Amino acid sequence: MQSFDYQTPTRLIFGKGVIEKLPKVMSAFGKKILLTYGGGSIKKVPALSDNPSAGSLYDYVHALLKDFEIVELSGIQPNPKYNPSVLDGVRLCKEHKVDVILSVGGGSVLDCSKAIAAGACYDGDPWDLISYKTKANAALPIVDIITLAATGSEYDSGGVISRTETNDKIGYMDRLLYPAVSFLDPTYTFSVSKKQTAAGIADAMNHTIEQYFAEDTTLLNDGFCESMLRSLMENGRKCLANPNDYQARAEMMLCCTYGCNGILSLGNSESGWPCHGIEHALSAYYDITHGEGLAIITPRWMKHILNEHTLPRFVKYGINVFGIGQELSEWDIAFKAIEKTYCFFESIGIPMHLREVGIDESRLDEMAHHIAVNEGLDQAYSPLTQQDIKDILVDSL
Amino acid sequence: MQSFDYQTPTRLIFGKGVIEKLPKVMSAFGKKILLTYGGGSIKKVPALSDNPSAGSLYDYVHALLKDFEIVELSGIQPNPKYNPSVLDGVRLCKEHKVDVILSVGGGSVLDCSKAIAAGACYDGDPWDLISYKTKANAALPIVDIITLAATGSEYDSGGVISRTETNDKIGYMDRLLYPAVSFLDPTYTFSVSKKQTAAGIADAMNHTIEQYFAEDTTLLNDGFCESMLRSLMENGRKCLANPNDYQARAEMMLCCTYGCNGILSLGNSESGWPCHGIEHALSAYYDITHGEGLAIITPRWMKHILNEHTLPRFVKYGINVFGIGQELSEWDIAFKAIEKTYCFFESIGIPMHLREVGIDESRLDEMAHHIAVNEGLDQAYSPLTQQDIKDILVDSL
User: Fold this and answer.
1) Whose CA, among A29, A312, B326, B362, lies 20 to 30 Å from A187?
2) What is the pLDDT of residue A317?
3) In chain A, what residues touch B230 (CB-CB under 8 Å)?
4) Residue A286 pLDDT class (50, 70, 90 cuts)
5) Confidence of residue A253 (pLDDT cuts 50, 70, 90)
6) Helix, strand, coil proportions of chain A in percent (round to 5)?
7) A residues 233..262 contacting B (CB < 8 A)
8) A270: which DSSP letter?
9) Is B13 touching A (CB cutoff 8 A)?
10) What is the model's pLDDT at position A165?
11) Which chain B residues are Cβ-neighbours of A227 within 8 angstroms?
């Protein structure tokens, strides 16, 4: 078992109607708020599912925070952009001497808010921090209200920021960036589209798979991960069948929350998160939906790394996650487990070929090179060369 | 799914030799330390398993903290006592204007240190806080070094304090009482006796069972709990067979850490922790080892509450924790699961009858009455009357 140094200080306030606690929570951090959001779901989602007169989340947040000064940054996109979103947010924080950021949306808005929180307390170019050229000394506190179950950004210290001109998509982590408080009301995810719900399921499943497939793991963590995967599949299917199923939306939301803060793999060896390494290039070059990219890559990556050495892990995965019968041979269990992974993603409506999301063979070499140079996958669980990465991409077409 | 408001801010520093970080960690909290410990294991455990010249944990802590002022409170007993331990600790903190408490030992030392931390910042009788007569406004920060894997006090906000003259044993919780930092070096548990190792396994297993048997649970939490139980049994057996098995001691230590901070049951309905309610009286009246008391009570409690309504839960428990074949009838699976629970505790050397730990029938009525009045078990999962409690106690003789 590996040594570790672990802390997740975020407070989770979870359940229907918890937004009522917002004013009290915010008042601990100051009076000047940067309110960050994306394409407008904040203006459509009902703030209180049992009380339509409260209006949209946007309206109700303003009503609840009428005694605060609010500056807004809107239009934060999926795969959030350094320019303009991070830069604009940092500028607003500095100009208005903001005390605290309130992020309302999914993981993209929150990831962007984290980069802003660090940049606002830094005199130089915020890219210095994101690219690890220098380390932040401080960051503004962040409170978030989650409207999409997927990334787990609400319970981790990381964010992923894209810089279009260089095709960079960087996962940026710093202990300073744990949200102080995350509000999780499952009813806010009732209106999430089937496409985004499925992408969220795939995202959280891949977060778990990236930690499960590691050289050294524990019986404890293996069981945690297997439970995550079973729950995400069962509750994910229910969310798609009945978008207003509170119990299913709630459990999916809780599952997603555990995806990236390390609790699923404390003491495991590092896996290198290879599917993320590959997918980051896909969305940096083509701006595809992250969860869809992960779903496409995952079974191809599995097929590619299956060998004598990794076989026992696939066998365990097949038996405990998919209930594949132990009467089959180990290889048959492994093949079947990979097939079931693919079929599950396909069954929830994810386009399972790169061509379906607008990616053809033209830039595969360039992306494989970019990934090999930047993502350190030669150190991953089952190390990947540039040729390996290219093969996985070709197989994903 | 139930709503919840959850936060575990404690930093876990886990692994062999992590104590080297102690001076840096302590310096964040001040210069004056109250060092709390128990019967002297601190003076026997080697501080660095690879470097005997570092001496005992006691010696090395003093060497590492030579630039700090240290006041000591020793002799804290299992089932830690309000009088003298808590009262002495509070007095020392006030007299010496202590900045931070350093607890070295198992859950009893840490539980006592938590009560001291709150009492040190309160003008009245500390029992007011422990008995919930009033709520603490502040508490001293706590750092701990764990030498016994069992209670999970290192990652929760609670403590259990006994007051001998009234036979009270109260579980006291307050968000202020999460340790700031917990040092977990599995080598410190190598010298834990077979008796205490087994009691620790039973303690952590019962913490999990208390959360697993609840009215509303999630597929996710069920899987987390089942994984805990499987890991505790497998690694517990290994620890007993080979006390210096680092991997097994480490995984057992990690499992125990999750026992009581709620992470295993976020969103579940309250179970009321009935076995703890009963066991607290046993150790308050007879000062028995907590984990042994829990092991004795658990299977009798299970047998008592098994009925048509609780049957599905026992079936799930039997199949997923013990691998009992699904070809059996539901009732047979449940009976077998309870039998296997009993047999596991017995197999690790726990005395499985109250008489074996010095408890006869003479005070069962008095204890059943005390439990019924004080523990609220009429609200527990499968509610218990005073007669139910008495029956469970009689069955445990």
Assistant:
1) A29
2) 98
3) 219, 223
4) very high
5) very high
6) 55, 15, 35
7) 234-235, 246-247, 250-251, 254-255
8) P
9) yes
10) 86
11) 219-220, 222-224, 226-227
Over 80: is that where the pLDDT of B40 sits? no
Tokens of A19: 């937004």
List the domains of chain B with CATH numbers. Answer: 11-188 (3.40.50.1970), 193-396 (1.20.1090.10)
Say whether residue B50 is in contact with chain A using an 8 A CB cutoff: no
CB atoms within 10 A of CB A146: 31
The C-alpha of B162 sits at a distance from chain A's nearest C-alpha, in angstroms, of 30
- What confidence score (pLDDT) does residue B165 get? 86
Per-residue pLDDT, B96? 98
Q: What number of other Cβ atoms are within 10 A of residue A242's Cβ?
A: 12
Tokens of B331: 């009732």
Q: Which residues of B touch A3 (CB under 8 A)?
A: 14-18
For strands B168-173 and B158-163, give the pairing. Answer: antiparallel
Query: A281 with A169: CB under 8 angstroms?
Result: yes
Question: pLDDT per residue over A168-205, tens digit each?
Answer: 888 899 999 999 999 999 999 999 999 999 999 999 99
Kindly report, residue by residue over A154-164, the tens digit of the pLDDT.
999 999 999 98
Question: What local confidence, expressed as pLDDT, does residue A167 receive?
Answer: 84
Span B363-386, pLDDT tens digits: 999 999 999 999 999 999 999 999
Mean pLDDT on B21-47:
96
Closest CB to B227 among A8, A223, A255:
A223
3-state SS string over B136-195? CCCCCCEEEEECCCCCCHHHCCEEEEEEHHHCEEEEEECHHHCCCEEEECHHHHCCCCHH
In angstroms, the separation between the Cα of residue B354 and the nearest Cα of chain A is 32
Predicted complex ipTM exceeds 0.85: yes
Closest-CA residue of chain A to B16: A3
**H/E element, B102:** strand B100-105
**CB of B24 less than 8 A from some CB of A:** no
> What confidence tens digit (pLDDT) does each residue in B232-277 have?
999 999 999 999 999 999 999 999 999 999 999 999 999 999 999 9
Which candidate from A16, A223, A230 shows the least CB-CB separation from B219? A230
CA distance A182 to chain B (A): 10
What are the CA-CA distances from residue B10 to residues A4, A6, A82, A276 (Å)? 14, 8, 33, 29
> For position B167, what pLDDT does the model report?
84
**CB of A79 closer than 8 Å to CB of A168:** no
Q: Does A188 touch chain B (CB under 8 A)?
A: no
Angle at B190 between CA B185 and CA B194, to 5 degrees: 135
Q: 3-state DSSP call for residue B32? A: strand
Q: Is the dihedral of CA A73, A78, A84, A90 positive or negative?
A: positive
Mean pLDDT of all residues belonging to chain B: 96
Q: Chain B residue with minimal CA distance to A17?
A: B3
The tens digit of pLDDT for each residue in A295-352 reads 999 999 999 999 999 999 999 999 999 999 999 999 999 999 999 999 999 999 999 9
Q: SS in 3 state form for A106-144?
A: CHHHHHHHHHHHHHCCCCCCCHHHHCCCCCCCCCCCEEE
Q: How far is B321 from chain A (nearest CA, A)?
A: 11
DSSP E strand boundaries for chain A: 4-14, 32-36, 69-73, 100-105, 142-146, 158-163, 168-173, 181-184
Contact B223 A220 (CB under 8 A): no
Name the nearest CA neighbour of B224 among B207, B212, B237: B212
Cβ contact A17:B4 at 8 Å: no
Residue B21 pLDDT > 80? yes
- Helix residue ranges, H only, B22-105: 22-27, 57-64, 87-96
Is the minimum CB–CB distance between B222 and chain A shorter than 8 Å?
yes
